[in-house]
Design a protein that fits this description.
- The protein is α/β, with parallel strands linked by helices.
- It folds into 2 domains: 223 residues, TIM Barrel, CATH 3.20.20; 76 residues, no CATH class.
- 43% of the residues lie in helices and 14% in strands.
- It has 15 helices and 10 strands.
- The two termini are 38 Å apart.
- Bound molecules: flavin mononucleotide.
- The site of flavin mononucleotide (FMN) has 28 residues, from β3 and β8.
Amino acid sequence: MRIETAITRLLGIDLPILQAGMSWASSNAALPLAVSRAGGLGVIAAGPMRLPALAEAIDAVREGTDRPFAVNIPLYRQGADEVLDLLEEKRVPILIASQGGPKKYLERFKGIGTTCLHVVASEEHALKAAGAGVDGLIVVGGEAGGHPPTELVSTLVVTRAVVRALAGAVPVVASGGFADGAGLAAALSLGAGAANFGTLFMATPEAGLHPAYKQAVIAASSTDTRTVGRGFGMIRTLSNPFAERMAQAEAAGMPAGDRRALFAAGTLKMAALDGDVAEGKVEAGQSVGLVRLIEPAGDVVRRITAEYLAARAGLPGSDAATEPRDAAVAAAR
Ligand SMILES: Cc1cc2nc3c(=O)[nH]c(=O)nc-3n(C[C@H](O)[C@H](O)[C@H](O)COP(=O)(O)O)c2cc1C
């Protein structure tokens, strides 16, 4: 099965489905390998990884498939330069950089033929990155898990804003809130060449998360997340005692130094590795409300594809659809 877009052509993949780089959850070989094998793009999240573990994961994905995969690096991480050196040495096919500017890495990676995607959350940053010469952009909206944009502009709006501003100069991946094939159809309708799925892929056996984290994800509804940590790298997380305490401190105007300490006391690692879903940062997007079961990642890719085809066929004007859809509308009246 192939669904061709500007992004699939750029990345050399069959399906416009990206598994988002997620610290801990995709800081392994298993999840990216399963997604790339199924025709999407698997992404190793280098954020929390030590160099030997990262090298091993890259080798393991390469041994498991000859299809493309990517490595995500948040440029603010400690030791980012050493990670970039390793990625250059390993000649990774695709680099996805977030949380920083493209100048730091672009020339050297383009020089060795790596395709460079840059993560942005606004029109302004999209234009800057495109002007610097990145090959593609991942545009993140307010629904997203992890670090959504500060002003929480929705994916619906920010994707359109970026696509309009770029006028086709650089292909775009939409990120934040996508959890099924209807979401993929929506992303492509907005002018994106693919959708990035984060929260959805946390609910897979391959994700490197404690079972308690995965259970919390499939139990949550779409109103169970909140954003905390404004000013220190705001995150969207499941509501839990840590997030409640943080939100109260923010509402009460606690001094920044104390708030920062409170924010640092809970970590993603506590939730992801130790399963402390009360006191850790249980980062997740609003699409948790659409994720109900733990399913192998390859099956997730195949399900998104089938749902995408059904969603397209169900649109007004499509051959397959007009009848039942019109009947349903009539019945609802
Ligand atoms: C647990 C978690 C960890 C994340 N870690 C990273 C990361 O290391 N680097 C990065 O660029 N984005 C990270 N993100 C953001 C994702 O790449 C992606 O933008 C987001 O998950 C998309 O929204 P969704 O969760 O609604 O699909 C993370 C998201 C989550 C939920």
